[in-house]
Amino acid sequence: MTPKWRLIVFFIGAAGIVCLFALVRAPVLRLNEFRNRYAQQINTRTFAERNVTDAVSAVNFDYRGFDTIGEEFILFVSVLGSLVLLRMAEERKDEILLDALDRKRDVGPSDATRLWILAMIAPKLVFGVYIVTHGQLTPGGGFQGGVILATAALILYLGEGFAVFRDVLSHTAIEVGEAAGAGAFVLIGMLAWFWRRPFLTNILPLGKSHELTSGGTMALISIATGLEVAAGFILLLYAFLQENLTIEGEE
Amino acid sequence: MTFLQIGVLVLVALGGTILVFTRDAGAQPIVLSLFGLILALMFMIFQAPDVALSQIVVGAVGLPLMVLLAIAKLRRDEQFLKREKDRERKAQS
Amino acid sequence: MGHAFSYAGYVTAIWLFLIGLYGVVTSRHLVHLCLSLTVLQASTYVLFTIIGFRPGLPAPIFTDGVTPGSPAVDPVVQALMLTDIVVEATVVALLLAITVRIHRRSGTTDPNQVDMMRG
Amino acid sequence: MQFAPLPVVIPLIVAAAMAAGSGFLHRRVLDLGALATSAAVLAITLHLTAVSSKGVIVYWFGGWQPVAYSHFPIGICFMIDPFGAGLASLVSLLVLAAFTFSWSYFESVKALYHTVMLVFLAAMCGLCLTGDLFNLFVWFELMTAAGVALCGYKSEESQPLQGALNFAVTNTIGAFTSLIGVGLLYSCTGSLNMAEVGATLSRGSSGHSFLIVGFLFLIAGFLVKSATVPFHFWLADAHAVAPTPVCILFSGVMVELGLYAIARIYWIVFAAASQPMMNAIRTLFLTVAVLTAILGALYCYGQRHLKRMLAFSTISHVGLMLLAFGLLDPTALAGGALYLLGHGMIKASLFIGAGILLHRFRSVDEYDLGRVNRQIIPIALMMIAGAWGLAGLPPFATYFGAEQFEHAAAEQHLTWLAGVIAFSEIMTSAAVLRFTGRALFNLGRGYSIASRGAPHIHMEVETHGKHSRVPAFMWLPMALLLLAAIFVTIPIRHSAAHYAAQFESAPVYESAVLGQNPSQFVPPQRPAVIHDESTSSTWWTRIVVVVGMFFFALLGIFPRRRNSVVSRALYRAIGYPLLRLRPLQSGRVGDYVAWMAFGIGAYGAVLLLLR
Q1: Preceding peptide of D230 cis, ω within 30°
Q2: How large a percentage of chain C has pLDDT more than 70?
């Protein structure tokens, strides 16, 4: 198709889509008696049933925890897919070149900059861990905290270069961490199964409200998610950074 | 209050439009990051702090970062391919 | 009928959906195509947000000042959006990896020039 | 039912364990583990099929039974009936076949291949069993992510990448459209559970246009997945280039899962509420089905690359299965289910055949091959048997399936649909026969008119080891799948109609899921029947199909001189339309997305105008 015809086809379709949306305007915008019953059930019961204060985390990790398993594995598989596509394993043999490159990189950022950058890592780590562990109490949880932890690794790379990044965060260890995080979530679900309860049943003691231990398995799931997400994002960083450097090394 | 809500929605629509019409690779990560921030702001205003936090770490930091790295890699590959071609040409002549 | 914000949100969602589609259709660079996809997906965020929002109600986090069990904004759609955000990030990562790979193999990032198969 | 979550949970755990141990696990350990896992999942899903035949199994994750919440579903459930569990069994059978085939297959980059395949298995099982709309979206997206990763697995060439790109972009956009549909329905019904949403909609306050638009957006993603016109373009690009074991799953089940989801959504969520619009919906689906079947068959006949040929044949057969669903009749649906099982197995078997040729001769191109080899003759014979099955001829399950929906079409005074079915069967099987004749028996000369302009795709070798022989774990699954496609009819042929009638009655699922009443299914007044007596008209159609199949196959192998009457007529009927149609399959993702937008608009327009 020529670009012109492509646009014509698209605009005909787009006009149709606009009409469709316009037709359903009223039922979507009007409040009916059904609209918020799911939300009401969750909002009224979360605290009483699960001792947690963040209803969103309760939905994510308990009421609809099974969705979150699927979501974790979407992340897991996409990271693996990106690794396959960027061919990590194949390019391992070029690591010798990388070493030569790292020596060249000695004239990187100045010491002062490095210090500043490194000084940011510790608070990042603390913040990330805080977000992961307080998922059931305040906004946040394994997912958000995991990404924050991964950005700490990025700062390490910016400050110290790829060699240090690679030494501190061994690729194999991160891979194992990612798989362990994803697997742990499923295993926590299986815990109840072995007690002949439905998969993902929250069988641990629910603890006291407003405390870290509240919510039973929710805290554990949040930590597993955090591990998986942090490791997954670091692996993505690895994939993109390493290939960059391989090319550079060939110069 | 409604004013604020409508304002941020208009910003979101504008941000999306600008992002789609940004064809310059250098500007794309920045515009994407701004768009992510606007979305996070929208989530804050509409009382969704969990989603806002997640949008800030992913939409405003993680995603633009990946795009940045990918663009950098594309540029390096470009140079690499060009050099390969030059080398081939030299070898032929 | 609904509130003003929900009209604005609805229109915004439709607009983002269409402009994102338009971006994908007219894209000449695979990175740009990924970004258009994020715009497309933002339409689902906006739609879910306005569906869940109730003016005057607090966020569904029952800590300071919010009595547990009292009405709040819909937490279910927020949980769905969290999933949605992860999906978006990972899909874009995959597509960027494909982009880099395509560029390596065929030296182009224009989706209109990578056609080796047709017919 | 304690086993219900295992088809999803076991592959996920094994996948995570394999990824964790990828550094030190030996390749054979991975192979054995993957085989054992898929065999276990097969056993469990077969067991679930057997148990669910006594009544729908509902499994609440986290133990959130709605009974405690005034019958409001607060968690996620699996809703298992013989159709869903049977489809999950087909999924795990084909995954087992794929893993068997890949025993000596390409080197795995660590454990990535096995891991991603297992996650793919889990996602497909989840899609078959779930009873929750958002959960459906999650498995859909997981399927897409795993599929894209697998499709681009051999990314040394550019074509797999192009296929993966088109696959990823079109399916992702489809998924987002479906998500908008989920949002629309949630806004109106306040629930995500299929049965609850269906019950709320049927209480009815939302209006017809809302139902149409919600339905359309919700199924848009699955229309893309099941490759109906005009959402079908990505399929050929992705299937032609993916590694063979992945093709087995793509064509054998993934596409059909899209259809399954559409049928499930329609019957549980919308059927009761959209009763007055049933005719419009039937017209839409039949039109689309006819277009898909004819277009796919034409393209299929016009290919020279075996995998691409089979991919287009899948599109054509999806049209037939959509036809079976679109008749909105339990007999037709039962036939469609039977057809789906038979087609999945036959198509998987043919793709294994393509994999064997690629292993043996490093090519699957009709004109590049052309070597008679005594060793390859059994494979060639199995290809012919596969073509026979694609043509819907006895004793394959496809025959018994097609027979049923032809009957149902005749009952609705749509006898002409039999012609469309026959056309699709003739062209797809003739293409495979033509390929076998030319490539494996070295028959024929010159180029067939139909191949003009067909893409020539270079394939890379996927296997290592000796290329001079065909190992047993390659030909054995091919033969066993063909046998399975014959014998699968015996246990299910007579019960299929009963479960099809159950599948189409939402109240059964509502009472089972929401737990208000006992969930015993009472068959409707006029029970769906399996037609046992083969009327003379079906025999006539079969004879036409056999004659047509050999006619077009021979015509492709021995093209006549250019100005003979036959070849001019053939050019007008097949060659010319193909030449005009080929540019549409442009390989450019922008075109495909434009057509998707067009498709959504057009489907909506048809439904709104006919309502």
Answers
A1: yes
A2: 94
* Nearest chain C alpha carbon to D579: C119
Count, residues in chain B: 93
Neighbours of chain A (3+ CB pairs under 8 A): B, C, D
Q: Which domains does chain C have, with CATH numbers?
A: 4-106 (1.10.287.3510)
CA-atom Rg of chain A in angstroms: 24
Res. C56 pLDDT band, cuts 50 70 90:
confident
Q: Other CB atoms closer than 10 Å to residue D452's CB: what's the count?
A: 15
CA D539/CA D542 separation, integer angstroms: 5
**Encoded tokens for D304:** 């020279």
Any A CB within 8 A of C8 CB: no
> Shortest CA distance to D117 belongs to which of D245, D291, D284, D8?
D245
The stretch D563-568 carries a mean pLDDT of 78
Pairwise CA distance, residues A184 & D19, whole Å: 13
D381 touching A (Cβ < 8 Å): no
Strongest mean pLDDT among A120-134, D93-107, D414-428: D414-428
C115 pLDDT higher than 80: no
ipTM value, please give it: 0.94
Nearest Cβ partner for D59 among A83, A178, A198: A198
Binding-face residues of C in 44-103 toward A, CB within 8 A: 51-52, 54, 59-63, 68-80, 82-83, 86-87, 89-91, 93-94, 96-98, 100-101
Tell me: the pLDDT tens digits for D251-279? 999 999 999 999 999 999 999 888 889 99
Q: Mean of the pLDDT values across residues D600-611?
A: 93
Residue C50 backbone zone (phi > 0: left; psi -120 to 50: alpha; other: beta): alpha
Q: Do C100 and A243 touch (CB under 8 A)?
A: yes
Q: pLDDT confidence of D522, banded at 50, 70, 90?
A: low
Give which of D424, D385, D389 is closest to D301, Cα–Cα.
D424
CB D195 within 8 A of CB D513: yes
Q: Determine if residue C74 is left, alpha or beta; phi over 0 gives left, psi from -120 to 50 gives alpha, anything else beta.
A: beta
pLDDT tens by residue, D28-68: 899 999 999 999 999 999 999 999 998 899 999 998 888 87
Tokens of residue A49, six digits: 């049933």
Question: CA-to-CA distance for D423 and D31, rounded, in angstroms?
Answer: 41
Listed residue (B47, B32, B42) closest to B11, CA to CA:
B42
Given a cut of 50, whether residue A247 has pLDDT beyond it is: no
Q: How far is CA D490 from the centre of its chain?
A: 22
Sorted by where each begins, the domain ranges of chain D are 1-131, 132-501+529-610
Mean pLDDT of D116-139: 96
Q: Is A140–B53 a contact, with Cβ atoms under 8 angstroms apart?
A: yes
Indicate if the pLDDT at residue D602 is higher than 90: yes
- Output the DSSP codes for D402-434: HHHHHHHHHHTT-TTHHHHHHHHHHHHHHHHHH
Counting as low any pLDDT under 50, the low residues of chain B are none
List Cα–Cα distances, D149 to A73, C107, D101, D375, in angstroms: 13, 21, 19, 34
Instruction: For residues D104 and D34, give the distance between their C-alpha atoms in angstroms, rounded to a whole number.
Output: 14
Determine phi and psi for A54, rounding to 5 degrees. Answer: -100, 105
Chains that touch C (3 or more CB pairs under 8 A): A, B, D
Residue of D363, D367, D465, D481 whose CA lies nearest to D96: D481
Coil, strand or helix at D516: coil
pLDDT category of residue D16 using cuts at 50, 70 and 90 = very high
D58 strand-pairing partners: D79
DSSP class per residue in D113-141: HHHHHHHHHHHHHHHHHB-BHHHHHHHHH
